Amino acid sequence: MMHIFSMKSKTKQMSISDIPDAPVLYLPLLQHIGQAAKPIVEVGEYVLKYQLIAEETRNLSANIHAPVSGTIKAIELHPLADGTLVETIVLQNDFRNEEITRPAIEVDNLTSDEILAIIKGAGIVGEGGAQFPTFVKYNLLGKKIDTFIVNGTECEPYLTADYALMRDKTEELFRGILLINKVLQAREIVLSIEKQNKELLDIFSPFLSQSEYKNIRVAILPNQYPQGGELQLIKSVTGKELARGVLPKDEGLMVSNVGTIHAVYNALVESKPLTERIITVSGEQSKKSGNYQVKIGTPISHVLEYQNLTNTLDDKQLVLGGPMMGKNVVETSAPIIKGSSGVLFFKKKEIKRNNCISCGYCVDVCPMKLMPLVFAENYRTGKIASLEKYSLNSCIECAACEYICPSDVPLMESIKEGKIKLNALLTHAN
Amino acid sequence: MQTDSKTIYTPFVRAKDSVWEVMSDVLLALIPCAVISYFAYGEAPLFVMFVAVISAMVGEFIFAGIFLKKWNTLLDGSAIVTAILLAFTLAPFTPWYVVAFGSAMAVIFGKILWGGLGRNMFNPALVGREFMTVFFPLVMTSRTIWYNKDYVNFQDLNIFNFLGNGGFTEYMNSIFFKPSGAIGEYSVLLLVLGGLYLLLRRRISWHIPFGLLVTFFILLQIFAFKDIKFSLGGILLGTLFMATDMPSSASTKMGKLYYGAMIGLVAMLCLLNDVKYEYMSYSILLVNGFVIPINWVFKPKVWGENINLKERVGAGVLLTIGIVATTYALVYLHHFDLVRYLIFAYILIVIGRFSFSKQLH
C-alpha cells in the first residue's frame, strides 16, 4: 500500500445538501453484478415515487424503484458512464413527488428472514462500488460471522461522501449496523475509519458509550491507499490475509460500506427503497464542490448543468466514482447509479507514455504483492500466457501502480486488457 | 450526447514524478563529487565529463532519432547521467577522443539498440567503459592517463584539521579528499552523501547497497589473510550509483538484496583471482545479466498465496551456482586476454536483436 495525496479538504467540511432533481431520470436495469432486472411498467405508465418499476430476476439481481413520480418515457438502450449500452427505463419527472403509501414497519420485531426480505425488496446493492446484491451477501446459509466490518475507510482521494454520511447521519448508521447484525449475529463489530478522519471519534463516542452499541468498536487505520479495499481492510482489522476469490463469509467475516448500511436503515426504518445516495462532487474543474444527496438515475449532464459547466467532454475529464478506480465518463447523458460514489471534474490531460525504467516503485506499492511492471512488459511483448505465472488475476485493479509510476507506463491498460486476453486463453485451454 | 472514442484507463490522478525528476536527482547526487574532482586535477576531469556529456547527447539525439524514431529522448536526462557516470570511472587524463567514443558507445550499444531507456539489460556506463578498454587497450592501460603533475591542484584538502591532530582527523581528511583513482573516486564522503540523498529521495532502496557491502566486507574479513587491494571509492561509486541503476538492477526487495549480495560475491571472487582493476565493472555487468531470473526467483509472495519455499531455495541455489560458474569463466577469459571477444559477441547479439525484433522499434 502507499501514501496518496488526499484532496479531501475541498469537500470534507461540507454538510450533505441536495442537487435539485433532474427533469428526466435514466434507470439502467443493470446497476449490479449479475443479471438485469425485468421491467414491470410500460411506456406511458404513470409511476409514483418509490414504486417498484423493475423486478429482480433469479440470478443475482436487484429491484429498481422510481426515485420520483412521473411518466415512463421509454424503455430503451442507454449508455452507462463507460459507454456500455444497457436496457434503461427513462422516467419523466413531474416534480410532484407523489409517493406510494409506505408501510409502517415494526423494526424491533423483525426476524432475520424478514429483514433480508426487506433488503431484497428495497433493491439494495453494495454502494462501495462492487454493486453486489446485499440480500445475497447477508444470506449466510448457515455460516457463522465472527467479525462484521463496517467500511468507513474511504481511501480514494477527493471522496468524502462516506465521511459526510458518518458525520451527519451517525445515529442512522449506528442503528443500521445493529439491525444488520440481527441477521449476521457477529460477535464483534468493527467500524473502520482512516486516521485523517479520526475527529469522527468525538461524534461516535456518545453512541459507543451506550450499552446497545457495546459490541461496536472503532478501528483507526493508517491513511493508506487502498486501505478500503475489502482484502486490505480485512487484513488491517483481523490480521487475516484472504486470497482474491475467497469469500469473506466463508472465513467468518462480513464487510459492508457505510453507504450500504445507511440504505438498509432507510429500507427498514423509513421503508424507503434505494433511490438516492450521497455522492461527492469535486475535482480541479468543479465549481460547486460538495457532498450531495442525489436521486439514482440523475444524468451526469444534470450535475454539469448544476455546476454551470458546459455539457461537453472536449475540455474536461469526467470521472464517475473515485479518481483511482472510477469510470472515465464517455457519455454525459449516463446516469449516476447505485454504486457511484462521486462525480469528479478534472482538466483534460494528455499522458505521455515512456518506457518502463524498472524502478520497482509499482512492486513496492502493490497491495496484492504483484509485479505490475512484468504485466506491462509481457502484455507489450504479447506473452499473455506468462501473465498467469505472475498471478495477474489476483490484481484488484486499484491503480496504485500507475499512480506511482514515474514513466507513466500504461500499467492499467496492460492489466485490464491482459486479463481479458489471459482469461480467453485460459477458457480456450480448458 | 458526447462521445470519446479512445479508451481511457484508470487512474485519473498521478503522483508528481517523472523520469526527468529521477535523473535530475541522480545528477544532483553526483554534482559534489564532480566539483571535488576540480580540486584534484583542475580542468582535466571537468573536460572529460564535458566531452562525455556532449558525446552522449549527440549520440542519443542522432541514434535515438534514427533507430527509435524518437527525437525527444534527450529530455529524460538519462544520457547525461550515463555520461557523468562513465566519466566517473575514467582516469582524469583520458584522451578526449577515447572518452567521446566510450560515451557514444555507452548510449548507443548500452541503451538505444536495446530499445531505449529502461529496456537495456546492462549498465550503459559500464558497457561504454568496456568498449573503451577493448578498442583502446593501449590508452586505457597506460600510466600517463592517471597522473600529470602539471595539473595537480591540491594534494590534500585538510578541512577536518579543526578536529585537532590525530588519527581521526587524518582519516576524515582522507575520506573527504584523496586525489587518486578514477574521477569519481576522490571523495568517499561525498559519494556516501550522494548515496544518502538518493536513499532519502527513494531513488535507490537500501537493499542493494546493504546486500553488496555486507557480503563484500564479510568476505573481506574471511580472506583477511590474503593481501586484497581495492579502492573504497571505487566500491562505493559502483555500489551506490552503478549497481543501483534502475533498468539494469533487480526490481523486488528480496531480489535487490540477493542481487547486491551477488555483486559483492563476484567482486570478491574477481579480487581473489587477481582481477586488479575491473572487479567492480565485471561484477556489476555480470550480475546485470542475471536480473531476469533473479526477479523471477525472488518475486514477492502474492497476497493470500502460499510460497513454495523448497522450490524457491532450490532455484536460488541453482542461480548462485550459475553466477559463480560464470564468474570463473569470466576470470579465465580475463587472464587470457579474451574479454574482447565477449564484447564482439555482445555487439553482434545487440545488433542482431535490434534488427530482428519488431518490438524494439
Automatic annotation (TrEMBL), chain A:
It is found in: Cell membrane. Its EC number is 7.-.-.-. [4Fe-4S] cluster 2 binds at residues 366, 395, 398, 401. Its main location: membrane. It is a peripheral membrane protein. Keywords: 4Fe-4S, Cell membrane, Electron transport, Iron, Iron-sulfur, Membrane, Metal-binding, Repeat, Translocase, Transport. GO terms for cellular component: plasma membrane. The keyword Cell inner membrane does not apply. GO terms for molecular function: 4 iron, 4 sulfur cluster binding; electron transfer activity; metal ion binding. Residues 347-376, 386-415 form the 4Fe-4S ferredoxin-type domain. Signal peptide: none annotated. Its cofactor is [4Fe-4S] cluster. [4Fe-4S] cluster 1 binds at residues 356, 359, 362, 405. GO terms for biological process: electron transport chain. It is an enzyme of class 7 (translocase). Binds 2 [4Fe-4S] clusters per subunit. Belongs to the 4Fe4S bacterial-type ferredoxin family. RnfC subfamily. Part of a membrane-bound complex that couples electron transfer with translocation of ions across the membrane. The complex is composed of six subunits: RnfA, RnfB, RnfC, RnfD, RnfE and RnfG. This is Ion-translocating oxidoreductase complex subunit C. The gene is rnfC.
TrEMBL record, chain B:
This is Electron transport complex protein RnfD. It comes from the Bacteria. PANTHER family: ELECTRON TRANSPORT COMPLEX PROTEIN RNFD, ION-TRANSLOCATING OXIDOREDUCTASE COMPLEX SUBUNIT D. Pfam families: NQR2_RnfD_RnfE. Keywords: Flavoprotein, FMN, Membrane, Phosphoprotein, Translocase, Transmembrane, Transmembrane helix, Transport. The chain crosses the membrane at residues 20-41, 47-67, 74-90, 96-114, 126-146, 181-199, 206-224, 257-275, 281-298, 313-332, 338-356. It comes from Dysgonomonas alginatilytica. GO terms for biological process: transmembrane transport. GO terms for cellular component: plasma membrane.
